[in-house]
């Protein structure tokens, strides 16, 4: 058994990642008003936010083998052998998700982190390389085309548009990955306010434990090894893949890999989905619009 070496092979195997039964079980969850759903698009800060929320609600507990044990992935929990409906170790109850507004169960509180789409695409490429496809076998240009050509409801842009349209709701908190990097303490403070955590000691320790050095030192607790153990066999993915989630997330770190053709294709998609309906000419405009209503510095 080998890892995929083409986009088509990777696409076919990934279609088995989540079962319809598991998805149905997750979507049947009926939220309480205090439940917290962390639902950025893939590689836009989901694990980072899981760590922040769990640190805030527990005062920094690290008693988990992998973060999704204690902040379960709503739409995959059943397929991982977890019960999203079961009691959790702390309150408020918290869940990971990648669902857009239109699909996620309603009635809780929702945290969304936006990220520059090209940086998110490159981060996903590096995350899947060596796990979902053989290292070096799929060029960035092919992966970028795949990223653009996913099922419409599953694209970065459909996800972003769905949540941007709800940004004014009291039960939705929108942040950006870049502003979290620039001012982590402010991001943690805003999350604490949003989920009802007032304990200063909890806020302080959650901020420290959401820092790069701490999370890197505890990397095995954020590496998706439980996801891989549960789903790799079903997808025909050989064991032993690497899927590190903790890196510095540097903005534009691999810009040399992004050709003008890729940049243009991403710009066209942005124009169609975010500029025309919302008047946001670029991701920079989105970030600026959110920063105007917070204490983040640009």
TrEMBL record:
GO terms for molecular function: sulfotransferase activity. SUPFAM superfamilies: P-loop containing nucleoside triphosphate hydrolases. Residues 33-228 form the Sulfotransferase domain. InterPro entries: P-loop_NTPase (IPR027417), Sulfotransferase_dom (IPR000863). Pfam families: Sulfotransfer_1. It comes from Roseovarius litorisediminis. This is Sulfotransferase domain protein. Belongs to the sulfotransferase 1 family. Keywords: Transferase.
